[in-house]
Amino acid sequence: MANLTTTYMGIELKNPLILGASNLVSKPDVIKQIEEAGIGAIVYRSLFEEQIQLESLQMDEQLSEYENRNAEMTHLFPGLEHAGPKEHLYNVEKLVKSVDVPVFASLNAIYEPTWVEYAQELEKTGVAGLEINLYAVPGYFEVTGESIEEKQVQIVKAIKQVVKIPVSVKMSLFYTNPLNFIKKVDEAGADGYVLFNRFFQPEIDIEKEEYFYPWELSNPKDHMVGLRYAGLLHGNVEGSVCVSRGIYDANDVIKMLLAGADVVQMVSTIYRNSPSVVSDILIDINKWMDDKGYKTLDDFRGKLSRKNLKDPFAYQRAQYVDILMKSEDIFKKYPMV
């Protein structure tokens, strides 16, 4: 039996499979099944800035209903700042205590004070680490990419100054040069990188002539961009590398490890295939490693990263050109209908 243990942000995991942030954590029976299937760690669903502010506003409105009813009631309900998210913090702590694998919290804020305050609050729940989701959607023409990046780097620095637990950054792909930005965040002290976050884009219903947000799971092959960047990052940053999105089976996990990832996150395959898919993936990874003669993940991790490949063009433009030049051969294999 191969040894699947790995290290993520300095934390030892029994295997590289992590349940990504999702609503699955709200189902205790499902979480129990996922843990029994062998998951290595769990990320609790994100706490959002909008959620914090909305719940705080709702609390303020409820408390203010009674403010001026009579003199005795004026101070009967004291202001409770950020009271709403207490339930989220309670549920994170409850999960930490109920499972025997590391739990990571996830935070998706906007303003630096909120990032810092809730990073500290989440740390108090006993989580092993914190995943900060840098999800910025520019809505103004005058905002520059440089200003967005600088603000996000400062957020990472501010959080690292106030918490002792490791901090990973869930990345967007939408930077002019993601590698350059990751390097900046790496130098700012981040302990890991999750490649990449998934945006829920608006769609238009042409009959109702209105926007709606479709709920869609990730698809197989969505991992291919993450695969490329894992191969580029391996051995070139201090932080751990985690690939997210489109991780469906053991083959996908093995590919990520060969490219240089330390761990992977999965959600959609569990929704589609039930928690038992975790066990299936672990069995298949073990079999592949046994067949190849690998005893540990480090025996082959990063074997196909840019740093370790002898072919200097494997991750470059020449690879793309080569595919185009051979397009006729490709279409012979996949004929048009």
SS-based class:
alpha/beta
State the distance separating the first and last CA atoms. Answer: 46 Å
Element pattern in H and E: EEEHEHHEHEHEHEEEHEHEHHHH
Mean pLDDT across residues: 86
Strand order of the largest sheet: 3-4-5-6-7-8-11-12
- Cα radius of gyration in angstroms: 22 Å
Count helical runs: 12
Largest sheet: 8 strands, parallel, barrel
The percent range for helix content is 40-55%
- Overall number of strands: 12
Could you say which overall geometry the principal axes of the C-alpha atoms support? Answer: globular
Query: Strand fraction band?
Result: 15-25%
Which residues form runs of ≥5 with pLDDT under 50?
Answer: 57-83
Characterize the structure shown.
The protein is built from 12 helices and 12 strands. Strand 9 and strand 10 form a beta hairpin. Helix 4 runs parallel beside helix 5, helix 7 runs parallel beside helix 8 and helix 8 packs across helix 10. It starts with 5 loop residues before the first strand and ends with a helix. About 8% of the residues have low confidence.
